[in-house]
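Trying the structure run again after the queue cleared.
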Amino acid sequence: MSSLQDADRRTMRDAALPAGAPGDFVATLAHLGALRFSGEDAQAFLQGQLSCDVERVGPRSSSYGAYCSPKGRMIANFLLLRDDAGFAMVLSSDLVPAVQKQISKFVLRSKVKVSDASQAVVLAGAAGVQAGRALAGIFPEVPEAPGEVRSVPGTGAIVRLKDGRWLLVLDAKEAAAALHGLERHLAPADASVWRWLDIRGGVPLVTAATQDQFIPQMANLELIGGVSFEKGCYTGQEVVARTQHLGKVKRRMFLANVAVAAQAGDTTYSEDLGEQASGMVMNAEPSPDGGYDLLAVVHAASRERSTVHLKAPDGPVLRFLALPYAVA
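Done. Tokens:
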């Protein structure tokens, strides 16, 4: 069973696509990139580097996770999946070179090859009631359970996400034909639609603007199955575990809407904390309902008892919305 499936049972309630989402669409996701980990020691190597339990990521499963600094701050977060060629890590495209360079330092004598797969694959997403039927024309088996993965050699892999969407990791040589076939049944959409759905689903994406800013719990990563507290040591594990055992996390990621444009890395200010910046925007996209929807890491007490502003102590007010999972 995958970590994502575990999280689905423990922390997340059944969810549908939010109001304003297009019904049936396919989108190329150029904001995402991929690293490939291959070799007989790949599993053991990643188990000692990543926050998720890599040993539980089987050939037909996936897991969210984080790659942290020794201080427990996220260098990147990702969706990790496994196929016949090894492990594929899907993360923000602007972090791929830096993560590849950093994690490769620890390979040493391990039989592991770390490669940038961003040119070898095309990342895409599909959603809607017609998407499953359309995808069946490419993949003999279309996964239905959250976290499930199916792959076809020479074609690529497909991952079922919690909210019903599918993430596609397509072989670059076959991607154009596959996407053309999907577009006969699904409307082409911009990647911003996909990113907005991630925001509404409470799924963060660390980018260059927010790299090395947050421990995983600040971004609710343990709530979506991206942190294992039972596995052995990994880089940053001591800080992550200590934070968990101390009890309530003081800063958490929340969903909000704001009337003006926002972007990753924007600071937030809370009236109860004065003029000192007290939080940061993780991700933001235009909302179909107006303004921008965003994921922001702020003090939990400020979200509950104060008013939070964007960019300045007297800036636009954040209007908090409900996430599809409970935040302790």
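The domain at 250-321 is CATH 2.40.30.160 (Elongation Factor Tu (Ef-tu); domain 3). Worth checking whether this holds up in the mutant runs.
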